[in-house]
Amino acid sequence: MAGTVCAGRYFTATTGRKQRRGLRYLLLPTLPTTALCPATRASAEIISSTGNIFSCSEYPLVPEAERSLPLAHIDDADLPVFRPEGPFDDWNDTVEAGKTWCRSCPLLPTCGGSCPKLWSEGQPPCPSYKHNFEGRFDLAAARQGMTVAAEPVAA
Ligand code: SF4
Fold this sequence. Notes:
This protein is mainly alpha-helical. It contains 6 helices and 3 strands; from the N terminus they run H-E-E-H-E-H-H-H-H.
């Protein structure tokens, strides 16, 4: 994870410079995530301009996905009320089973596990703040005028 550490230090250094120059940016999440990825809910669907119905927004208009991954088509005669089962409808069970890092992650309430598709492809989609939270807190504290306390003098 050396790259992660470097990324965190790089973030803290560059963002600290931005902060000293008075530029504004979002340091920490301010709200819990309001909804999981729609691909995890049968009540959400995406209709491609081709008429294909998908659960995941990464599939429409991708030639291979349009050929092999549609769940249904709007011209299908017997479309159910909710779209047919998609590849990520079992996301909550996947998290509960510990198949990702999310179950024990303290950031789950703000992240929701991010992208089930990327997890399924072996690419953990953790947001950057997972890797540099301490640096972000330091910068947030500096914004409030806080400084690091001096070490107590040994007796
Ligand atoms: S930060 Fe990563 S491990 Fe944590 S909940 Fe989000 S995707 Fe899962």
